[in-house]
């Protein structure tokens, strides 16, 4: 359990954290969300003492973290950041085992940890690869495994998926939520993205100007936002919008796609170049949508194939340009899927709709192009 008791932090005369009081129970997934500069990353960094507080206390399992050695504390807490931070001169196995080796685990134990971690995400064949040989999504998976390697009870995550493309991001979110539930770890996850908060969290902590303004489950926060800012930031008005809206109003048009007659190697190179784990597939003649191809299928079947066509899967939900957005959005919420593929009148790929793209479009309608 993590307890914040009247925590404040100053940078010079500026108070960036203002009397924070809350508790994070064991085994829960908690997202900290709010506008830029609200103090969410500073709050996260106080837990492992990357930032020391000026007033109050932070306790883990009843022990004041100021009474613990900084290095020992940080080695006992997983930490994942947006920049991934893999060591480029180390293999995947060496990166994953960094903390276990620092903790003086013997070689056999370290190797078993690496094998077990990679097996959890079906990436055993990447054991001896270097970060430069992997896509952004694959690197971030290894970053998460490294944070889990010493079996910490707490993992801190600072916008770890924000630099990834929408499809890879949605896939990683789903994988990580399943992993957290399986391992029962306590996750503190900073984001500025309401989509991530709604999709991942058991509890959302909403911060504004260094203060906590609401702590609630996603459902409670959507139904009973504490302030107008919480209401608009979380997009509650999406539920209340009466005017019909079309999927094309909310879709992302710049998506990565490939034709079905392309080779496996070319497909893999494209995934690596754009740091994606999935590509949309279209016919080489006419451009009709065929389905998706994933990095997992390339790894599993790619060596026996000349082209990607046999491993194209038509399993993704689709919508049509002109369809009401609500149907696609309801599907995304109810199913937990990452995206819906939008097709034009000739069955060609027009774009994709994600919960994030819906939220971003609504925000732009509210505030225009303000930064």
Give a topology summary.
Elements: E1 2-11, E2 14-24, E3 29-33, H1 40-47, E4 55-60, E5 63-64, H2 70-75, E6 77-81, H3 92-96, H4 98-102, H5 107-120, H6 136-148, E7 154-158, H7 166-183, E8 186-191, H8 194-200, E9 203-208, E10 211-216, H9 218-223, H10 228-234, H11 237-240, E11 257-259, H12 264-274, E12 278-282, E13 289-294, H13 295-301, E14 318-320, H14 325-335, E15 340-343, E16 349-353, H15 355-367
Parallel strand pairs: 3-8, 3-9, 6-7, 7-8, 11-12, 14-15
Antiparallel strand pairs: 1-2, 1-4, 4-5, 9-10, 12-13, 15-16
Pfam family, one: CBS
Membrane topology: Peripheral membrane protein
Enzyme class: translocase
Please give a quick description of this structure.
With 371 residues, the chain is of the alpha/beta class. It contains 15 helices and 16 strands. It has two domains: 232 residues, Rossmann fold; 121 residues, CBS-domain (Roll), CATH 3.10.580.
Q: How much helical structure, as a percent, in the residues?
A: 25-40%
Oligomerization state of this entry? single chain
Structural class: alpha/beta
Strand content: 15-25%
CATH superfamily descriptor of the largest domain: P-loop containing nucleotide triphosphate hydrolases
Q: pLDDT below 50 for ≥5 consecutive residues: which ranges?
A: 236-244
The CATH topology of the largest domain turns out to be: Rossmann fold
Distance between the termini: 37 Å
Assign an overall shape. Answer: flat
- H/I helix tally: 15
Largest sheet: 6 strands, mixed
**Could you tell me the radius of gyration in angstroms?**
22 Å
